[in-house]
Amino acid sequence: MSLWSAAEAAAATGGRAIGDWVASGVSIDTRTLMYGDLFVALKVARDGHDFVAQALKAGAAAALVERVPEGVPDDAPLLIVADVQAGLEALGVAARARCKARVVAVTGSVGKTSTKEMLRTVLSGQGKTHAAEASYNNHWGVPLTLARMPQDSDFAVIEIGMNHPGEIAPLSRMARPHVALVTIVAPAHLAAFDGLAGIAREKASIVEGLEPKGVAILNGDLDTSDILIDAARAKGAKVVTFGESAGCHHRVSTLRIGDKATVVQGRAWRTPVLYKISVPGRHFAVNAMGVVATAWALGLDRATALADLGRWQPGAGRGMRETIAMDAVETQMTFELIDDAYNANPASMAAALEVLAAAEVHNDLGRVSKGRRIAYLGDMKELGESETALHAQLAEQVAMEKIDVVHCVGPLMHTLYEALPIEKRGRWTKTSVQMSETVRHDLDAGDVVLVKASLSMGLARVVDAIRKMRQGAGLADA
After folding, report:
1. At residue 317, does pLDDT exceed 70?
2. Is 328 exposed, middle or buried (0-12, 13-18, 19+ CB in 10 A)?
3. 189 pLDDT band (50/70/90 cuts)?
4. Which of the four pLDDT bands, split at 50, 70 and 90, describes residue 473?
5. How many CB atoms lie within 10 A of CB 352?
6. What percent of the chain has pLDDT over 70?
7. How far apart are CA 398 and CA 120, in angstroms?
8. Per-residue pLDDT tens for 13-69?
9. What residues contact 63, with CB distance under 8 A and at least 6 apart?
10. CB within 8 A of 130, min separation 6: which ones?
11. Alpha-carbon distance 94 to 56, whole Å?
């Protein structure tokens, strides 16, 4: 498949192409580069120019660069531009301009990536759909996703995130969505904003790139919903709200969280709807109603969309559930892991604790006769001056009543540790490495265990240590 020819890429970027090459993809990482990709030598953690020779040797069709890198022949297939970041953005803009796909842009403090994946699942049932495989939602992730978009796509889903004010609007203008969806406004990156209102204004700026007659799908249950709605109306967008409150256009009326699934009854404007998602979680179920509203805004077949919602599963680190078998002979000796270690803020932490509280444990299986609900919780980052209080307040969550043991990782989580009743306190460690060393002694058959923290806390190490309890893993490691 031809995605970019040398002439097309040069015209899009205003650069100079060396060689007559054709690229079938776009990559910024030699570790995941596929044969035929255009390698983009971004300057992120390291200067991508240092990896151009390696990329070409690995089969890259060409490289987008600012200069001919050292060790690369002068006649190597290259696209030379004044600035690589600007060149990638130009490719993204050109890809969007040449494609007739209807585009959905997604943002929110919690649930961006899972909602993007729900949309991918639902839209794929009704046309060729393009979306990033990973959480590519920043200043290079959005143009990269657009630059990779096949010209014959019917739909595209673009995730847009932020850490500081002024980041979302330029990315929305680049994506030019027909539909913009905001999942929730919650305490996240508070250190860079003047409270929740500031975060809401930044999230609301996703409407800045809306195409004429565009639709804004907005959470109607928030204290800051009016900020979102006012911004959308000021842009001339059609506003559709979703949530659990009576005034929402698409409304969840009853919600049953089971051990393995969540069943929702509601109304899509004046039409009753019933759907199931194959994972427990109120946050997933409500965001799914936002997906139903998006399907309505795009004029899709609602019955097909509702059925396809049931096929979606959360990805690794985002609430994915798996069974850990501890014994090859006694097959009942299992416990369940909920891997939610990719990100955390107060809203997503509360949602994850609710899922754990609803999980079904099993008794009389292991050395501990009663199955337990156990949590490993790590620091939530970038919460500003209120970070200590927000961690301590987790002890007041209603879900905590049904959770048996909470292990805490990090200096901020020490405040939660101290706020917990003594009978619920597990261990506190400063680092995930220290916590991972002893998890084998914490868990038993019949338990359900949740792992959740901000990504920088590294609780993926705890997840890995838990997975190594799987039958056979210990022998293999030894």
Report:
1. no
2. exposed
3. low
4. very low
5. 23
6. 97
7. 33
8. 999 999 999 999 999 999 999 999 999 999 987 899 999 999 999 999 999 999 999
9. 38, 39, 40, 41, 52, 55, 56, 69, 72, 76, 77, 78, 79
10. 101, 145, 148, 149, 150, 153, 155, 156, 157
11. 24
Q: Could you identify the residue written with the tokens 């490993």?
A: 376
What average pLDDT does the chain have?
Answer: 93
Domains, in order of start, for the chain: 4-81 (3.40.1390.10), 99-309 (3.40.1190.10), 320-477 (3.90.190.20)
Structure tokens at 110: 């919690």
Let me know the angle formed at the C-alpha of 110 by 107 and 111, rounded to the nearest 5 degrees: 75
Give the span between the Cα atoms of 298 and 295, in whole angstroms: 5
- Asked if the model's pLDDT at residue 315 lies above 80, the reply is no
Binding-site residue positions = 108-114
What one-letter code names the amino acid at 388? T
Concatenated DSSP letters for 307-376?
HHHTT----TTTTEEEEEE--SSSTT-EEEEEEETT---HHHHHHHHHHHHHPPP--SSSSSSS--EEEE
Query: Which of 53, 63, 55 lies closest to 15, judged by CA?
Result: 63
As a whole number of angstroms, the distance between CA 336 and CA 444 comes to: 10
Which secondary-structure segment (H or E) carries 476?
helix 473-477
Residue 252 main-chain phi, psi, to 5 deg: -85, 120
Q: What is the largest CA-CA distance in the chain?
A: 71
Question: Which residues, 6+ apart, have CB-to-CB distance to 401 below 8 Å?
Answer: 357
Q: Measure CA of the first residue to CA of the last residue in the chain; give whole Å.
A: 45
What is the token pair recorded at 316? 């690794």
Tens of pLDDT, residue by residue over 389-436, are 999 999 999 999 999 999 999 999 999 999 999 999 999 999 999 999
How many other CB atoms are found less than 10 A from the CB of residue 474?
12
Give the H or E element holding residue 26. Answer: strand 25-27
Q: How far is the CA of 115 from the CAs of 62, 127, 283, 336, in angstroms?
A: 34, 18, 10, 24
Residue type, 126: Q
pLDDT per position as a tens digit, 327-371:
777 778 899 999 988 888 898 899 899 999 989 999 988 777 899
The annotated binding site for ATP is made up of 108-114
